[in-house]
Amino acid sequence: MTSLLTRVMVTFFLTTVTVVVGLIVVVNYQVSENFNSYLSMSNMHGMMMNHGNMAAMMGIPEERFMMSLKHSLLLAAGGMLLIGAGVSYYLARSIATPVIDLNRAVNAVASGDLDTAVIVERQDEVGQLAMAFNAMTAKLKSNTILRQRFLAGVAHELRTPLTILKANLEGIADGVITPGMEQMNSLTEEVDRMTKMVGELRDLSLLEAGQLQPDFALLDLTELIRQVVGKSKPFASEKNINLDIKIDDKLPGFWADGDMVNQTVYNLVLNAIKYTPQAGQIIIGATAENGMIRISIADTGIGIAVEDLEHVFDYFYRVDAARAKVSGGTGLGLALVKQMVLAHDGTIKAESKLDQGSIFTVLLPIASHKKT
Fold it and tell me: C-alpha distances in angstroms, 288 versus 257, 267, 301, 313, 358?
Protein backbone atom coordinates (compact mmCIF):
# COMPACT_ATOMS: atom_id res chain seq x y z
CA MET A 1 0.00 0.00 0.00
CA THR A 2 1.31 3.47 -0.95
CA SER A 3 2.21 5.58 2.06
CA LEU A 4 0.09 8.55 3.09
CA LEU A 5 3.00 10.94 2.46
CA THR A 6 3.38 9.70 -1.14
CA ARG A 7 -0.34 9.88 -1.86
CA VAL A 8 -0.69 13.41 -0.50
CA MET A 9 2.45 14.61 -2.33
CA VAL A 10 1.34 13.08 -5.66
CA THR A 11 -2.09 14.65 -5.24
CA PHE A 12 -0.61 18.11 -4.66
CA PHE A 13 1.87 17.70 -7.54
CA LEU A 14 -0.76 16.51 -10.03
CA THR A 15 -2.88 19.49 -9.05
CA THR A 16 0.09 21.77 -9.70
CA VAL A 17 0.79 20.14 -13.09
CA THR A 18 -2.85 20.54 -14.11
CA VAL A 19 -2.83 24.21 -13.18
CA VAL A 20 0.49 24.90 -14.96
CA VAL A 21 -0.51 23.07 -18.15
CA GLY A 22 -3.81 24.88 -18.16
CA LEU A 23 -2.08 28.22 -17.77
CA ILE A 24 0.34 27.42 -20.64
CA VAL A 25 -2.50 26.43 -22.95
CA VAL A 26 -4.41 29.61 -22.13
CA VAL A 27 -1.32 31.82 -22.52
CA ASN A 28 -0.33 30.15 -25.80
CA TYR A 29 -3.85 30.56 -27.17
CA GLN A 30 -4.02 34.22 -26.17
CA VAL A 31 -0.59 34.95 -27.65
CA SER A 32 -1.51 33.25 -30.93
CA GLU A 33 -4.71 35.23 -31.17
CA ASN A 34 -2.96 38.50 -30.39
CA PHE A 35 -0.17 37.74 -32.85
CA ASN A 36 -2.74 36.99 -35.52
CA SER A 37 -4.25 40.39 -34.86
CA TYR A 38 -0.79 41.91 -35.13
CA LEU A 39 -0.26 40.37 -38.58
CA SER A 40 -3.64 41.59 -39.75
CA MET A 41 -2.85 45.09 -38.59
CA SER A 42 0.39 44.91 -40.54
CA ASN A 43 -1.54 44.45 -43.81
CA MET A 44 -0.44 40.83 -44.00
CA HIS A 45 -3.91 39.42 -43.57
CA GLY A 46 -4.50 39.09 -47.29
CA MET A 47 -1.30 37.15 -47.78
CA MET A 48 -2.17 34.92 -44.82
CA MET A 49 -5.57 34.18 -46.35
CA ASN A 50 -3.99 33.25 -49.66
CA HIS A 51 -1.58 30.78 -48.13
CA GLY A 52 -3.89 29.67 -45.31
CA ASN A 53 -0.96 29.44 -42.94
CA MET A 54 0.05 32.11 -40.42
CA ALA A 55 3.56 30.66 -40.05
CA ALA A 56 4.22 31.03 -43.79
CA MET A 57 3.48 34.75 -43.56
CA MET A 58 5.88 35.41 -40.69
CA GLY A 59 9.23 36.95 -41.32
CA ILE A 60 12.45 36.18 -39.50
CA PRO A 61 11.73 38.63 -36.63
CA GLU A 62 8.30 37.12 -36.10
CA GLU A 63 9.69 33.58 -36.13
CA ARG A 64 12.33 34.52 -33.61
CA PHE A 65 9.68 36.15 -31.41
CA MET A 66 7.49 33.03 -31.47
CA MET A 67 10.45 30.74 -30.79
CA SER A 68 11.57 32.92 -27.87
CA LEU A 69 8.02 32.94 -26.53
CA LYS A 70 7.79 29.15 -26.65
CA HIS A 71 11.15 28.79 -24.89
CA SER A 72 10.04 31.25 -22.23
CA LEU A 73 6.81 29.34 -21.70
CA LEU A 74 8.67 26.04 -21.39
CA LEU A 75 11.19 27.53 -18.94
CA ALA A 76 8.40 29.12 -16.90
CA ALA A 77 6.47 25.84 -16.90
CA GLY A 78 9.55 23.90 -15.82
CA GLY A 79 10.30 26.38 -13.05
CA MET A 80 6.70 26.35 -11.85
CA LEU A 81 6.68 22.54 -11.84
CA LEU A 82 9.90 22.43 -9.82
CA ILE A 83 8.52 24.93 -7.33
CA GLY A 84 5.23 23.01 -7.28
CA ALA A 85 7.08 19.77 -6.55
CA GLY A 86 8.90 21.38 -3.61
CA VAL A 87 5.78 23.00 -2.24
CA SER A 88 3.84 19.74 -2.70
CA TYR A 89 6.45 17.82 -0.75
CA TYR A 90 6.51 20.41 2.04
CA LEU A 91 2.72 20.53 2.36
CA ALA A 92 2.40 16.76 2.14
CA ARG A 93 5.08 16.26 4.76
CA SER A 94 3.55 18.85 7.14
CA ILE A 95 0.17 17.12 6.89
CA ALA A 96 1.16 13.46 6.68
CA THR A 97 4.14 13.24 9.06
CA PRO A 98 2.19 13.98 12.27
CA VAL A 99 -0.50 11.50 11.20
CA ILE A 100 2.14 8.86 10.46
CA ASP A 101 3.80 9.48 13.85
CA LEU A 102 0.42 9.25 15.55
CA ASN A 103 -0.32 6.00 13.72
CA ARG A 104 2.98 4.53 14.94
CA ALA A 105 2.18 5.63 18.49
CA VAL A 106 -1.29 4.07 18.31
CA ASN A 107 0.21 0.78 17.14
CA ALA A 108 2.77 0.93 19.95
CA VAL A 109 0.03 1.47 22.55
CA ALA A 110 -2.01 -1.34 21.00
CA SER A 111 0.99 -3.64 21.46
CA GLY A 112 1.18 -2.74 25.15
CA ASP A 113 3.71 0.11 25.29
CA LEU A 114 1.85 2.64 27.44
CA ASP A 115 4.91 4.90 27.76
CA THR A 116 4.51 5.99 24.13
CA ALA A 117 3.96 9.71 23.59
CA VAL A 118 3.72 11.91 20.51
CA ILE A 119 5.87 15.04 20.28
CA VAL A 120 3.60 18.08 19.96
CA GLU A 121 5.17 20.83 17.82
CA ARG A 122 2.05 22.64 16.61
CA GLN A 123 -1.13 24.14 18.00
CA ASP A 124 -3.55 23.42 15.14
CA GLU A 125 -6.09 20.56 14.95
CA VAL A 126 -3.34 17.99 14.36
CA GLY A 127 -1.44 19.26 17.40
CA GLN A 128 -4.61 19.14 19.49
CA LEU A 129 -5.14 15.55 18.34
CA ALA A 130 -1.59 14.68 19.44
CA MET A 131 -2.15 16.29 22.87
CA ALA A 132 -5.43 14.40 23.25
CA PHE A 133 -3.63 11.17 22.40
CA ASN A 134 -0.92 11.84 24.98
CA ALA A 135 -3.56 12.61 27.63
CA MET A 136 -5.46 9.44 26.73
CA THR A 137 -2.30 7.33 26.94
CA ALA A 138 -1.38 8.81 30.33
CA LYS A 139 -4.89 8.10 31.64
CA LEU A 140 -4.78 4.58 30.23
CA LYS A 141 -1.44 3.96 31.92
CA SER A 142 -2.77 5.31 35.22
CA ASN A 143 -5.87 3.11 34.99
CA THR A 144 -3.75 0.09 34.16
CA ILE A 145 -1.54 0.68 37.19
CA LEU A 146 -4.61 1.12 39.39
CA ARG A 147 -6.16 -2.06 38.02
CA GLN A 148 -2.96 -4.02 38.66
CA ARG A 149 -2.73 -2.59 42.16
CA PHE A 150 -6.40 -3.37 42.72
CA LEU A 151 -6.03 -7.01 41.67
CA ALA A 152 -2.85 -7.39 43.72
CA GLY A 153 -4.58 -5.78 46.69
CA VAL A 154 -7.60 -8.06 46.46
CA ALA A 155 -5.37 -11.11 46.21
CA HIS A 156 -3.27 -9.99 49.16
CA GLU A 157 -6.21 -9.05 51.38
CA LEU A 158 -8.04 -12.31 50.73
CA ARG A 159 -5.04 -14.60 50.88
CA THR A 160 -4.21 -13.93 54.53
CA PRO A 161 -7.66 -14.56 56.07
CA LEU A 162 -8.29 -17.52 53.77
CA THR A 163 -4.96 -19.05 54.78
CA ILE A 164 -5.84 -18.58 58.46
CA LEU A 165 -9.28 -20.10 57.98
CA LYS A 166 -7.89 -23.04 56.01
CA ALA A 167 -5.17 -23.77 58.57
CA ASN A 168 -7.60 -23.63 61.50
CA LEU A 169 -10.26 -25.75 59.79
CA GLU A 170 -7.68 -28.34 58.84
CA GLY A 171 -6.38 -28.34 62.41
CA ILE A 172 -9.90 -28.82 63.78
CA ALA A 173 -10.59 -31.60 61.27
CA ASP A 174 -7.35 -33.38 62.21
CA GLY A 175 -8.05 -32.99 65.93
CA VAL A 176 -4.93 -30.89 66.42
CA ILE A 177 -6.97 -27.82 67.38
CA THR A 178 -9.82 -27.90 69.86
CA PRO A 179 -12.51 -25.45 68.69
CA GLY A 180 -12.98 -23.23 71.73
CA MET A 181 -14.84 -19.93 72.02
CA GLU A 182 -11.68 -17.87 71.51
CA GLN A 183 -10.82 -19.86 68.42
CA MET A 184 -14.29 -19.44 66.95
CA ASN A 185 -14.28 -15.71 67.67
CA SER A 186 -10.97 -15.36 65.84
CA LEU A 187 -12.30 -17.21 62.80
CA THR A 188 -15.48 -15.14 62.88
CA GLU A 189 -13.41 -11.94 62.86
CA GLU A 190 -11.60 -13.09 59.74
CA VAL A 191 -14.91 -13.91 58.03
CA ASP A 192 -16.32 -10.52 59.05
CA ARG A 193 -13.26 -8.78 57.66
CA MET A 194 -13.61 -10.54 54.29
CA THR A 195 -17.34 -9.84 54.24
CA LYS A 196 -16.69 -6.14 54.88
CA MET A 197 -14.11 -5.94 52.12
CA VAL A 198 -16.34 -7.71 49.60
CA GLY A 199 -19.19 -5.35 50.49
CA GLU A 200 -16.94 -2.31 50.04
CA LEU A 201 -15.68 -3.64 46.69
CA ARG A 202 -19.26 -4.12 45.54
CA ASP A 203 -20.24 -0.59 46.56
CA LEU A 204 -17.16 0.86 44.89
CA SER A 205 -17.81 -0.95 41.61
CA LEU A 206 -21.47 0.13 41.61
CA LEU A 207 -20.59 3.75 42.41
CA GLU A 208 -17.96 3.93 39.68
CA ALA A 209 -20.38 2.40 37.16
CA GLY A 210 -23.10 4.86 38.18
CA GLN A 211 -25.41 2.03 39.24
CA LEU A 212 -25.57 3.08 42.89
CA GLN A 213 -27.24 6.48 43.01
CA PRO A 214 -27.70 8.57 46.18
CA ASP A 215 -31.17 8.69 47.71
CA PHE A 216 -31.44 12.42 48.33
CA ALA A 217 -33.28 13.74 51.35
CA LEU A 218 -33.08 16.85 53.55
CA LEU A 219 -30.39 16.20 56.20
CA ASP A 220 -29.54 17.72 59.55
CA LEU A 221 -25.76 17.59 59.36
CA THR A 222 -25.29 18.68 62.98
CA GLU A 223 -27.23 15.69 64.27
CA LEU A 224 -25.51 13.36 61.80
CA ILE A 225 -22.03 14.43 62.95
CA ARG A 226 -23.00 13.99 66.59
CA GLN A 227 -24.15 10.44 65.83
CA VAL A 228 -20.86 9.68 64.08
CA VAL A 229 -18.84 11.07 66.97
CA GLY A 230 -20.94 9.05 69.40
CA LYS A 231 -20.18 5.73 67.74
CA SER A 232 -16.52 6.70 67.19
CA LYS A 233 -15.80 7.59 70.84
CA PRO A 234 -15.09 4.02 71.99
CA PHE A 235 -12.26 3.75 69.42
CA ALA A 236 -10.92 7.20 70.30
CA SER A 237 -11.06 6.45 74.05
CA GLU A 238 -8.75 3.45 73.61
CA LYS A 239 -6.01 5.90 72.56
CA ASN A 240 -7.15 8.77 74.79
CA ILE A 241 -7.92 10.88 71.72
CA ASN A 242 -10.18 13.90 72.11
CA LEU A 243 -12.96 14.29 69.54
CA ASP A 244 -14.00 17.92 69.22
CA ILE A 245 -16.98 19.19 67.21
CA LYS A 246 -16.97 22.67 65.64
CA ILE A 247 -20.15 23.25 63.67
CA ASP A 248 -21.54 26.57 62.41
CA ASP A 249 -24.59 27.55 64.50
CA LYS A 250 -26.42 28.65 61.35
CA LEU A 251 -25.63 25.52 59.37
CA PRO A 252 -28.57 24.91 57.00
CA GLY A 253 -30.11 21.58 56.13
CA PHE A 254 -28.95 20.21 52.80
CA TRP A 255 -29.98 17.56 50.30
CA ALA A 256 -27.90 14.39 50.29
CA ASP A 257 -27.98 10.65 50.90
CA GLY A 258 -27.93 10.27 54.69
CA ASP A 259 -26.33 6.83 54.69
CA MET A 260 -23.56 7.88 52.30
CA VAL A 261 -22.77 11.10 54.17
CA ASN A 262 -22.81 9.19 57.47
CA GLN A 263 -20.40 6.59 56.13
CA THR A 264 -18.20 9.28 54.57
CA VAL A 265 -17.77 11.17 57.83
CA TYR A 266 -17.46 7.95 59.85
CA ASN A 267 -14.73 6.56 57.57
CA LEU A 268 -12.78 9.81 57.72
CA VAL A 269 -13.04 9.97 61.53
CA LEU A 270 -11.96 6.33 61.90
CA ASN A 271 -9.06 6.95 59.53
CA ALA A 272 -7.99 9.93 61.64
CA ILE A 273 -8.20 7.84 64.82
CA LYS A 274 -6.05 5.09 63.30
CA TYR A 275 -3.22 7.44 62.45
CA THR A 276 -3.36 9.74 65.47
CA PRO A 277 -1.07 8.78 68.37
CA GLN A 278 -2.02 8.59 72.04
CA ALA A 279 -3.57 11.73 73.60
CA GLY A 280 -4.06 13.34 70.21
CA GLN A 281 -6.93 15.48 69.02
CA ILE A 282 -9.40 15.28 66.13
CA ILE A 283 -11.62 18.21 65.15
CA ILE A 284 -14.77 17.56 63.10
CA GLY A 285 -15.99 20.82 61.58
CA ALA A 286 -18.86 21.87 59.32
CA THR A 287 -19.69 25.24 57.74
CA ALA A 288 -21.71 26.58 54.82
CA GLU A 289 -20.04 28.69 52.14
CA ASN A 290 -20.98 29.71 48.60
CA GLY A 291 -23.84 27.23 48.29
CA MET A 292 -21.69 24.37 49.55
CA ILE A 293 -21.43 22.42 52.79
CA ARG A 294 -17.84 22.17 53.96
CA ILE A 295 -17.00 19.21 56.22
CA SER A 296 -13.47 18.96 57.60
CA ILE A 297 -11.74 16.33 59.73
CA ALA A 298 -8.44 17.59 61.14
CA ASP A 299 -6.13 15.45 63.27
CA THR A 300 -2.79 15.69 65.04
CA GLY A 301 -1.62 12.40 63.59
CA ILE A 302 1.51 11.14 61.89
CA GLY A 303 0.81 13.05 58.67
CA ILE A 304 1.23 12.04 55.06
CA ALA A 305 4.25 12.59 52.83
CA VAL A 306 3.80 14.85 49.80
CA GLU A 307 4.42 12.00 47.36
CA ASP A 308 1.69 9.93 49.03
CA LEU A 309 -1.03 12.61 49.14
CA GLU A 310 -2.14 12.11 45.53
CA HIS A 311 -2.60 8.37 46.13
CA VAL A 312 -4.47 8.31 49.45
CA PHE A 313 -7.81 7.77 47.66
CA ASP A 314 -6.52 4.88 45.52
CA TYR A 315 -7.62 1.29 46.05
CA PHE A 316 -5.59 -0.54 48.71
CA TYR A 317 -3.09 2.31 48.96
CA ARG A 318 -1.52 2.47 52.40
CA VAL A 319 0.94 5.10 53.47
CA ASP A 320 2.28 2.81 56.18
CA ALA A 321 1.46 -0.83 55.44
CA ALA A 322 2.62 -2.05 58.85
CA ARG A 323 0.44 0.38 60.80
CA ALA A 324 -2.50 -0.21 58.46
CA LYS A 325 -2.21 -3.92 59.05
CA VAL A 326 -2.33 -3.44 62.80
CA SER A 327 -5.33 -1.15 62.48
CA GLY A 328 -7.23 -3.82 60.62
CA GLY A 329 -8.25 -1.63 57.70
CA THR A 330 -9.06 -2.99 54.27
CA GLY A 331 -7.41 -0.17 52.32
CA LEU A 332 -10.73 0.72 50.69
CA GLY A 333 -12.20 3.23 53.12
CA LEU A 334 -10.88 6.41 51.50
CA ALA A 335 -11.52 5.12 47.99
CA LEU A 336 -15.13 4.49 48.98
CA VAL A 337 -15.36 7.97 50.54
CA LYS A 338 -14.16 9.59 47.32
CA GLN A 339 -16.71 7.74 45.17
CA MET A 340 -19.57 8.62 47.51
CA VAL A 341 -18.56 12.30 47.45
CA LEU A 342 -18.32 12.26 43.64
CA ALA A 343 -21.79 10.68 43.49
CA HIS A 344 -23.06 13.88 45.16
CA ASP A 345 -21.18 16.07 42.62
CA GLY A 346 -18.88 17.07 45.47
CA THR A 347 -15.12 17.21 45.92
CA ILE A 348 -12.68 15.91 48.51
CA LYS A 349 -9.06 16.82 49.15
CA ALA A 350 -6.36 15.95 51.62
CA GLU A 351 -3.73 18.26 53.12
CA SER A 352 -1.00 17.07 55.42
CA LYS A 353 2.42 17.61 56.94
CA LEU A 354 4.54 14.85 58.35
CA ASP A 355 4.39 14.59 62.15
CA GLN A 356 1.92 17.50 62.28
CA GLY A 357 -1.34 15.95 61.15
CA SER A 358 -3.77 15.87 58.25
CA ILE A 359 -6.94 17.66 57.15
CA PHE A 360 -9.53 15.99 54.94
CA THR A 361 -12.04 18.43 53.44
CA VAL A 362 -15.32 17.48 51.77
CA LEU A 363 -17.42 19.96 49.78
CA LEU A 364 -21.04 19.00 49.01
CA PRO A 365 -23.67 21.11 47.20
CA ILE A 366 -26.48 22.27 49.47
CA ALA A 367 -29.47 22.15 47.14
CA SER A 368 -28.40 21.02 43.67
CA HIS A 369 -30.29 17.74 44.12
CA LYS A 370 -33.32 19.13 45.90
CA LYS A 371 -36.40 17.02 45.23
CA THR A 372 -39.27 18.74 43.46
Answer: 18, 21, 26, 24, 21
